[in-house]
Amino acid sequence: MNPKQKKNMIRIVAAALLMIVLAFLPLSGMARFAAYLVPYLIVGYDVIWKAGKGLWKRHPFDESLLMAVATLGAMALAIYEDGDYTEAIAVMLFYQIGEWFQSYAVGRSRRNISDLMDIRPDYANIEQQPGQLTRVAPETVAVGSTVVVKPGEKVPLDGVITEGSSTLDTVALTGESLPRRVEPGDAVVSGSINQSGLLHIRTTKVFAESTASKILALVEDAGSRKSKAEHFIAKFARVYTPIVVYAAVALALLPPLVNMAFLGLPPAWETWIYRALIFLVISCPCALVISIPLSFFAGIGGISRQGVLVKGANYLETLSKVDTVVFDKTGTLTKGVFEVTAIHPEVINPQELLHLAAHVERFSTHPIAVSLRNAYRQEADACTVEDVEEISGHGVRARVNGSVVCVGNAKMMEAVGAKWRPCEQTGTIVHVAIDGTYAGHIVIADVIKDHAGAAVEALHKNGVKRAIMLTGDGRAAADHVASVLGLDAAYSELLPQDKVSKVESFLQEEQGDGRLAFVGDGINDAPVLSRADVGIAMGAMGSDAAIEAADVVLMDDDPLKIALAQRTARKTMCIVYENIVFSIGVKAVVLVLGALGLANMWAAIFADVGVMILAVCNATRALFVPKDLRGYGRLQRQDEETARPVPSTQQSVISSGPRAYKIEVDCPNCAGLMEEAARKTKGVRSATVNFMAQEMKVELEDGENWDQVMTAVRDNCKKVEDDCEVYL
Question: How many angstroms separate the most distant Cα atoms in the chain?
């Protein structure tokens, strides 16, 4: 609790205790009134002051006026009738309890944003002379300066490490709890916390353009972007409150006057004034005015802890209606870098094959060479490499420990007389020959991100009707990714302007309240991100373009957070509608009962404060966001290295041999049925499930198309999972 909340809690407790004590004291008349006036003023002086201030400034119609009039009127009736001031004080007491509860809930929601705001660095250490550090404001540091970051300090500006190594805590930026290891040459972003070593960083941006500043500006602006529901409630409150006041006045005056003038009955002023006061208490719009903005605030704050930044409540509302998601491929669904995905040796072991290929390609700058060197990092050994020759269009030849080693494509193998073997796996195939003898091949490919398939499945389960991929790559690569991930459509060989045209055509196909989201990595995606109903940028930490262009920013590369963001948006909107229906429904019922004399002041207190507390409690549910959605994707295709290669156009996918599925099931019955379904699939020689290891080994008949058969296996196993009564 903050100091103000503590003060208000003390006031509430003091007033409640005084009421209990006064209930046992034999007081009467003005002494009783004076005694009960003390707890009333303790708990309600600020409400009365605010109401009077509003009247003075001619802005009278708010909940403070309703509470002030209702409680002061109840006090006046108590003086006139029987001296029971309990109801009047109880109205104010419970109203303040509701206000305190609302303040606490908002503060709790705000702490999520405050934690994110804490990424702002307070200072930067500049080494003006060797060994002497000077603290300066980050705003004064120029590009190209060297800053020193000690353990425990925040990285003040974006830059590149020139000296030192350490681990960085980026949880406030990405939601990722695992520290990130950094070395000289690695790029770092402001707001990260240095955990261990001393770092020297050469700045690449001024503070105003740094990642921390961009994120802080985004968060600060998020509150100004209201949803349609918030705009409606704001307009509703401005019209609703005056109507309620005038209706209460009419309820207090008209029935008594009608009784006297037309019916010849006693006016019963006290009865109708009491009902009018009940009407005022019930009509207070606190539950709506407080809980709806709080719901959006809690939703945005909760998802921000997972490294997902939503620029405003309007985008959260739009995200909840998304039924079409369009993905860019490279950098979004795939990693966008070549990696070694498989090693198939013939006469030597896999490590030695990779060792030879990496050393031959040691001096090449080709992306394939970089991938081989990254896969084999053991540079220091007794191996001698001589006479390196790069043959254009074929590969590289070198003498390694006296043997001639050729690394390249099939043309090079044919040139040296090596009888190479075709590879069934998709990707770029690097063949290796030693002294003219074929030694094996290495598969290099762009790799699908770990949770891409689970993300697509999660989106479909969230209600997304179409998951579409746009890419500039060839058709084979696009179709393969679409097949593996379960996408509904894939469009290949597109230029940037073609992607915009495709998105515009998809927008025209949208019906009803459906909305379209585009997901990209922020690189060359700005036109498409801005054209979609919701633009989502992935891996935006350090990317100015992504933060500027997107409406929703994912600070890391986990595709599952797209589904997480959508689920949070839908949960938030569900909470908003629940609060609207519940608040208006309860108030309407009690209003009618109060007007008919069937509800007393205690019922009015529940309809006001009770409903507000319940609505606020419901709104705070938006704070609780699941940390991940990795339960999706129960059947995920993998090869021996757990990577999924994207095909190039150089190789077919015809082959046989064992490959593995990773199966996550909740019952052995489901696993057995999957094994049976796989065995019955055309083209499968054998299938064996190890339930404890959650793995299915599948062997194909010779000459079968790997992609086609395994897609059929996957579909058949999925049907088993959907129909399994034990699992359901």
Answer: 123
Is residue 194 located within the same domain as residue 105? no
Cβ atoms 188, 162 nearer than 8 A = no
The model's pLDDT over 416-460, given as tens digits with 9 standing for 90+, comes to 999 988 887 767 789 999 999 999 999 887 788 888 888 999 999
Classify residue 308 as left (phi > 0), alpha (psi -120 to 50) or beta: beta
Mean of pLDDT over the chain: 79
pTM: 0.65
The verdict on 16 and 113 lying in the same domain is yes
15 and 73 both lie in a single domain: yes
What residues are annotated to the active site?
A: 328
Residues 6+ apart with CB under 8 A from 299: 310, 316, 568, 569, 571, 572, 575, 622, 623
Is 415 domain-assigned?
yes
Same domain, 3 and 110: yes
Would you say 237 and 187 are in contact if contact means Cβ atoms under 8 Å apart? Answer: no
Token readout for 554 is 């994912």
Q: pLDDT-based confidence at 692, cuts 50/70/90?
A: very low
Q: Which domain holds residue 129?
A: 124-212
Q: Can you tell me the distance from the alpha carbon of 720 to that of 417, in angstroms, rounded to the nearest whole number?
A: 49
Q: Look up residue 322 and give its DSSP letter.
A: E
Q: How many domains does the chain have?
A: 4
DSSP class of 654: B
Q: Measured between alpha carbons, how far is 471 from 477 in angstroms, rounded to an integer?
A: 9
SS3 226: coil
pLDDT digits (tens, 9 = 90+) for 467-516: 999 988 777 778 888 888 989 999 988 877 888 899 999 998 887 788 99
d(CA 358, CA 354): 6
Q: Give the residue carrying structure tokens 């040296």.
A: 416
Same domain, 111 and 61: yes
Q: How far apart are CA 10 and CA 2, in angstroms?
A: 13
**Is residue 711, in this structure, part of any structural domain at all?**
yes
Is there a single domain that holds both residue 9 and residue 99? yes
